[in-house]
Amino acid sequence: MNQLALLKGVGPADEADNGFPLIKTHYDEKFRVGWCYMQPDARPCFTPALMKSLMGYVRRLQLESVESEGQKFDYVVLASATEGVFNLGGDLNLFYRCVTEGDRETLQQYARDCIDLFHEFHTHFGLDLTTISLIQGDALGGGFESALGAQVVVAEKGCKMGFPEALFNLFPGMGAWTILSRKLGTAAAERMMLDGRVRDAEELHELGLVDVLAEPGEGEAEVYALIKKRNRQANSYRALRKVRDTCSSYSYQEMKDIVDIWVDAAFELDARDLRMMERLIKRQNRILA
After folding, report:
1. For residue 151, how far is the Cα from the chain centroid?
2. What is the pTM of this model?
3. Terminus of the chain with fewer CB atoms < 10 Å: N or C?
4. What is the pLDDT of residues 205-237, one digit of tens each?
């Protein structure tokens, strides 16, 4: 059985019983890579349960780095076990319920949990490692934001990414501005966050938001090619990562302030906006079916 087959979830290397029910993980000892595949049990979006599993995995990595004599991981890859979908973004069912019921506290906590997870991946968990997003399907809204949070984005050709929040009169508030304004500039960031367009991986590669393009079905192989290349120049890449951390730094307070604005904006949505949100929920359910 080859290595990539094991990563797809068959054979003894699969660690589905990892204490985190909505993800499956695999540790590649040879390349010191942690693979984390999201496998939600319903619509492939960031439900509170999925985020709890992901944060649990992060905390385990951090704990292992403290308890072990040497760091175990050089790379952590976030991917999806759902065919054709990386992640469809925020939990629109939860958004809709919180807004219609006036439950600000629950929506505020959900939004804070989202940026906590984004912050951990973007700051590579406070560890000396590189985070990689592997996109092999649609990444929308918060799904796109989460992918952009990694140091390296690998995407297969034909994958679609974008921010549909503009369709129901909101904006992506869990990391989009933090990344896009620094990579594209403020004007281009605003356009992408508000135009509602879904772009393919090829266009995003030209813009510099996708670092590595892979042929369909070759995403994992491209990740390993990337790792081998970086390992040959490990000192250079490690130093440049520190430079980027220093020069492109942002404060957690920035994200907190943005997400508070996002929550306020959510409670300004009118009946027409909420009907559009309902239609998107139904569309997402059809995609899953």
Report:
1. 11
2. 0.91
3. C
4. 999 999 999 999 999 999 999 999 999 999 999
